[in-house]
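The instructor's notes for this session suggest beginning with a concrete chain rather than abstract definitions. Hand out the sequence below and ask the class to guess, before any prediction is shown, which regions might be ordered.
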Amino acid sequence: MSNSTTLFWDKFNSAPIVGIIRGQSLESVLKIAEAYESAGLTTLEITMNTAGAAEMISTLRSKFPELNIGAGTVCNLSELREAIDAGAQFIVTPIIDETVIEHAVDENIPIFPGAFSPTEIYKAWSLGASAVKVFPATNLGVEFIKDVLGPLDQVKLLPTGGVSRSNIKSFFEAGAIGVGMGSSLIDKKLVEAGDFEGLKKHFISVKAEIQNFVKG
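After discussion, reveal the predicted structure:
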């Protein structure tokens, strides 16, 4: 399978939201992906601590070739290799693991390592991160993003955790190049109710909040 970095960024920039799927069944994941693509969103992450994650990534790559499908919660080299072998087009980590970052960079696969402090953020960026996942952003908030980008204006930040439809725009206004969204985007109540049309409408409403920041 092709892992074209340019194609990844073209798709990502057209809707710079990483939808994070954790703990769902394959059946639900396929329906979520269908609603996601239909809503005009492009980038989905399957966390590696989801049962059957590798199979999900492989299946999504096959059935939804227009989506960016990646792996999240990648904490070590074994998980990285499993994700890449399954066809993951990008990698997200909750931590800084130098070996994982360096291997992803060597294989030209976009990687978003998780970092919390300015020192961690700069270290991840220096190791070759495509963008740094500021995690958890819940307690840090929008002002932290703005403050960090003052001295570290070359770093691309992807806040994750605590991003919702009501505040997503403010993160982009602060200078984030994208966001990661889990339960606030992949609404479990709608999924459990089988209301995938409602989920699609929710996706569309979230995307509408950042239309002025879309590059693609």
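Then share the key points. The longest helix spans residues 26-38. The longest strand covers residues 17-21.
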